[in-house]
Amino acid sequence: MPYSTLLLDIKDGIATITVNRPDKLNALNATVIRELGEAAAALEPDAAVGGVILTGAGPKAFVAGADISELASQTPLEGKARSLAGQAVFRRFEAMRKPVIAAINGFCLGGGCELAMACHIRIASETAKFGQPEVKLGIGPGYGATVRLPRLVGRGRAIQLLLTGEMIDAHEAWRIGLVNRVVPAAALGAEAETMLRAILDQGPLAVAAVLEAVDAGYEMPTPEALLLEANHFGLLSSTADMREGMAAFLEKRRAAFRGR
Ligand code: COA
Questions:
Q1: Which residue of 62, 172, 230, 250 is 20 to 30 Å from 18, comparing CA positions?
Q2: Residue 65 Cα, ligand 1 centroid: separation in angstroms?
């Protein structure tokens, strides 16, 4: 499907989505949000896609936030609708049962940081900068930062970032747990692909079950979350992939998983 604000490349099981408005630092306007939703909807059921890498075009930005030129004139009801629409799109990536890695190549601000937080794993270039500067514009975050940032970095640090709007560098983002890994700018794409390939080498049914257990289990009382995990553990025992994985270990060879 052709997109006007995204580049989509699917190769060897990996779909790379690039937000492509480099002259506006890849700011999220309504078209980008809609097209991200369409891309997520298309990739989730696509058997040719094992996982997704999300990144931004150009050397400067991953995504520098929601498009302020659109926010500037919104009415209260339009603001609420914009927030709900963006939240639903980001949730599609978070709820995907295929791994989604954000490859963060520069400014990762506001809605950009919120998009990255909805991904399962974040890898940052050492030139990346992070922040939730919404308060500087007289608004609060609308695409999930008040919910996901405290879960990732703890409530105290999240509140500090949300209330000061300060920008932090990639090493500080790594130190507080906002990103998983920091790499030289030139190595970012390769690192994201290497990590995704390492995941795609595992059994896809197991990967999907773990994503579901963490995603759904996170909001559950502990006994229910443990039961969900046990149910997955049992269910996966019915799969050819489990038999293959264990046979491969015992025969000291690499497993060839087939997703069934
Ligand atoms: N929405 C709309 N346009 C944006 C944008 C955003 N969030 N972020 C950057 N842009 C645009 C700029 O307006 C500029 O467009 P122009 O060339 O037509 O004037 C272009 O992208 C380049 O940005 P510029 O500000 O000139 O780059 P810079 O290197 O001087 O500064 C930032 C980079 C990221 C510090 C600065 O662009 C910025 O503060 N952006 C807004 C970040 C933000 O508040 N995000 C949260 C929004 S809720």
A1: 172
A2: 8
